[in-house]
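ok, trying the design again with the full structure, not the truncated one.
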């Protein structure tokens, strides 16, 4: 049972030797509508922001924070971590303390002949980090331009786009282990990165809070231009020898032409993962749909989930307050006033339809809460 000891606004301070007092505010019964890009209006029992590791530790040391009744580790505080809210679907009120990570800062921490190591706070907006790298001619993340979210959420999801995944530039991260209450460093290998996955979505799900991420970026760049429409976009602009800024600009233009702005219409970008299938599955589908969109990777093929959804007849579909985007069927949208349950119900109908049509069960990329 959630503690009822907190007043409507609880304020406390945590002092460290030689540091100022950091005032921490815990709000009660707070709407999360403006903190998730779907714009779903659910309520958090308690809500607080932190802008440093010190402030996080102060929050976690407060005796007023509610505790889990059924927890994997009995002493764990009942908390829910929130970044930009760009990859979640909130289907119910959050009976916990929602902590919004706002740790900022981007710093060059080490430089070698060919590489530069850059550390960014987990609360930094991902696209702002990409723009920083491009402005300083540091390569490796330009294909990941305009992906919504924060730096801290990027390794959890192992974000990827246009032939590039975060794991390719990831060096390490620092996180608080909520079970041991100790700060831990994770290497690239430690994170067990997979397709839109990592150890933070599997065995360590909900157990760590990331405070910063360090990236290994290039001075001499190897551009990735063959995936998607990047090359076509560069050709349209008459660019024959592109820079990383040219690639970033091309990706931004492509994404803006295909994906709705969550500030204008609620969405979380791509709702489903692109399924990975065998050559036999591709051959079977191609017999009925010769225009199947796929990319070969080793012995397997990655299919375009948006193409599957469109061919199943869902592109531009609308049902009450929810629907499929008219330009990109992979994006589910909240036209205003939709509940998380309504969006979830539509996603399940789409899954069943694609399964019936192609024999493929789409896996959600968005996390359900």
């Amino acid at each position: 049972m959630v503690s009822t000891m907190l007043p409507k606004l609880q304020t406390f301070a945590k002092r460290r030797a030689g540091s100022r007092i950091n005032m921490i505010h815990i709000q009660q019964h707070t709407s999360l509508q403006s903190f998730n890009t779907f714009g779903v209006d659910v309520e958090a029992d308690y809500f607080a922001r932190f802008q440093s590791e010190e402030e996080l530790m102060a929050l976690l040391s407060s005796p007023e924070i509610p505790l889990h009744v059924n927890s994997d580790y009995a002493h764990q505080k009942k908390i829910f971590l929130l970044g930009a809210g760009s990859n979640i679907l909130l289907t119910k009120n959050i009976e916990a303390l929602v902590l919004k990570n706002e740790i900022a800062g981007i710093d060059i921490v080490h430089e070698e002949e060919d590489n530069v190591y850059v550390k960014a706070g987990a609360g930094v907006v991902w696209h702002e980090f990409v723009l920083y790298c491009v402005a300083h001619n540091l390569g490796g993340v330009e294909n990941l331009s305009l992906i919504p979210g924060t730096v801290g959420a990027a390794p959890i999801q192992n974000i990827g786009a246009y032939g590039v995944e975060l794991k390719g530039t990831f060096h390490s991260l620092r996180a608080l282990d909520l079970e041991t209450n100790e700060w831990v460093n994770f290497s690239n290998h430690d994170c067990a990165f997979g397709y839109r996955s990592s150890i933070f979505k599997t065995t360590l799900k909900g157990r760590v809070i990331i405070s910063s991420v360090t990236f290994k970026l290039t001075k001499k760049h190897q551009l990735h231009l063959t995936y998607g429409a990047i090359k076509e976009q560069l050709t349209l602009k008459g660019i024959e020898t592109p820079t990383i800024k040219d690639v970033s600009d091309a990706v931004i233009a492509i994404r803006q032409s295909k994906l709705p702005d969550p500030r204008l219409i609620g969405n979380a970008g791509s709702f489903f993962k692109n399924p990975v299938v065998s050559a036999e599955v591709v051959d079977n589908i191609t017999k009925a749909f010769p225009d199947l969109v796929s990319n070969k990777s080793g012995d397997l093929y990655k299919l375009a989930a948006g193409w599957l959804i469109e061919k199943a007849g869902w592109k531009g579909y609308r049902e009450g307050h929810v629907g499929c985007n008219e330009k990109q069927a992979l994006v589910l949208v909240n036209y205003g006033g939709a509940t998380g349950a309504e969006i979830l119900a539509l996603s399940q109908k789409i899954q069943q339809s694609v399964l019936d049509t192609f024999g493929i069960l789409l896996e959600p990329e968005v996390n359900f809460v």
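Keeping the full-length input from now on. Confidence is low (pLDDT under 50) at residues 1-22, 67-75.
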